[in-house]
Amino acid sequence: MSGRVAIVTGAGQGLGRAIAAAFADEGARVALLGRTKSKVDDAAAELTARGRDVISIGCDVADRAAVDRAVAETREKFGGIDIVINNAQGGAVGSSTPTTDLTDEEALEFFRTGPLGTLHLMQAAFPALCESEHAVVVNFGSAIGVRGAPRMAAYAMAKEAINGLTKSTAIEWGRHGIRVNLVCPAAWSPGAETYRDEDPERFERILRGIPLRRFGDPYHDIGRAIVALVSDDLSYLTGATLMLDGGQVMLR
């Protein structure tokens, strides 16, 4: 990744923070974007202390103007953009709401921060990606979108919308040399820890449903895999869905 520039959203904590670190450790220059500026500042400070070349930018991906500013700042600092990692997803992730009780506002919050946030960054970064010889976009879906889950309709709808965006754009942008792929991770996170503590029996059932019997490590299992996905070794892969979930969902 030496010399390449990556933007990672939702980079202040959890999976996004680990992905940003994986890219920075491979020599990429990384813009860490997040809605809570203090969190991305902390993540960037940790990487800077290790000698990594990163910047932190407060950015709510649901706000198109904020996304435009973040892309402009990244290009001004690093000279271009090669890699876009659309990890951010707002809404009450992990909540359990019957479909009959789902409100418009709950559903719209998932869509504003997920599919629309992903679209905003893709649109804003498109000119820079067209100038890159290694342009790759990685969007984030979910096994819940692929297979469905009770009481999680809003989240599932949003993630499948990102899947549709990924496939359509992979076809459209291929002529520009831009690859667009989707990953569906199952990674350990503070949210997963909270879920385990609140409902240990259901958590154990979920764990037993993963053939590898564990959640992925955010850095080693997910971050490193995404570095591999954007590398030149997979330069002929686009429009694909990669299940980084220990075998929980096996696509045909």
From TrEMBL:
**Keyword Metal-binding applies:** no
The residues covered by the Ketoreductase domain are: 4-194
- Which InterPro entries does the annotation name? KR_dom, NAD(P)-bd_dom_sf, Sc_DH/Rdtase_CS, SDR_fam
Alphabetically list the UniProt keywords: NAD, Oxidoreductase
Keyword set includes Oxidoreductase: yes
Q: Name one GO molecular function term.
A: oxidoreductase activity
The text of the family note is: Belongs to the short-chain dehydrogenases/reductases (SDR) family.
Matching PANTHER family, A to Z?
Answer: DEHYDROGENASES, SHORT CHAIN (PTHR24321), ESTRADIOL 17-BETA-DEHYDROGENASE 8-RELATED (PTHR24321:SF8)
Q: Could you identify this protein by its name?
A: Short chain dehydrogenase family protein
Q: Which organism is it from?
A: Mycolicibacterium hassiacum (strain DSM 44199 / CIP 105218 / JCM 12690 / 3849)
